[in-house]
Fold:
Amino acid sequence: MTVLLIVLAIAAAFVGGWAIGRSRKADGQDSSATDDRARGVSLGDVLEQHPTGVVIGDADGHVEYRNEAARRLAGTHAGLLIDEAIERHLALGRAGTASDRAIELFGPPKMAFVISARPLPHGRSVAFVDDISERRRVEQTRTDFVANISHELKTPVGALSVLAETLIDETDLDTIARVVTRMLAETDRASRTIDDLMELSRIEMGAERSDEPVRVADVIGGGVDRVTELAAHREIMISTLAPVEPDGRQADSLLVRGDRRQLVSAVGNLIENAVKYSEPGASVQVRARRVDDWVEVIVADQGVGIPQRDLDRIFERFYRVDRARSRSTGGTGLGLAIVRHVAGNHGGDVSVTSVEGEGSTFVLRLPMSAGDSSAPQSTGTSEGVA
Structure:
């Protein structure tokens, strides 16, 4: 509201100065040079730079001025709908009535605007177009996050409560052992969710992130080590291939720059995801390659695959393609969100291609470190099996 009032004051002054300028020109005076020297910068320049769209209409209902933010909407589908709303609000302003209204456009992409209008002197009016799309998206994300984390923690806590009640009058040792095992599993599930949330929070805030050359082979090795036990339990073979240059030569000293702990976490989560969504006896391949000034870490599996409709959402927090399978494998729904944020923190990105029933391939793309050629040689192996 404070910003709106400031812009309104500027717009009123702008219109007032515009009217005075017209009057001076009618008297044969050139006021522009004098005003510019006196102010250093015109109020029109200020309005042009403001992110809020500003539209000024005269007493006859004609538009006298649009700033850059308002002009950018012209010619778009959203712009046509917003122009209709602006006309209505300018009319209310000419009648001396202040107005505010939120407009939601369901897209795609989904957008939201607040259209406001205020009366100006001499029968004029001004309308403001405030794009609140990002604000709404953040609010919705926050709401979804609270709902999701409440659900994720409520499930194991509820199960623990039921299991604890079962033990109250139970005397059979075998039954007690089974219930205790279930309780430990539910406790572990809640603990993993909290650990992943804390990890994601640290990554999002960028807290304590180091910035140093990191050997890609070491990152892959660390990621595989995190999943070795799970892979052995699920009878999944993990093969790692040595990093390669564009011409196919091995590049054991290939480096990226960043936080080793975060990078290992990202690659480990990709490998863990591949293992969890593969059938027993399948294999997961992890390799890296240099593409121009980028390093791509590729994790490919022969698992169940991802439906096309879900590909755009799998990096969202708590989003699961198959909730039943995720529960059985102990997934928290945060692993791929962690990967996305780590990639972003390091100036890279992550992408996925998938075919249902055939498997998925994730590519973590990171800028190559400039110190690659001076790195010590790795003793890593060309292939490993978990």
Notes: Confidence is low (pLDDT under 50) at residues 18-29, 373-386. The CA atoms of residues 29 and 287 lie 74 Å apart. The chain has eleven helices and twelve strands. The two ends are 59 Å apart (CA to CA).
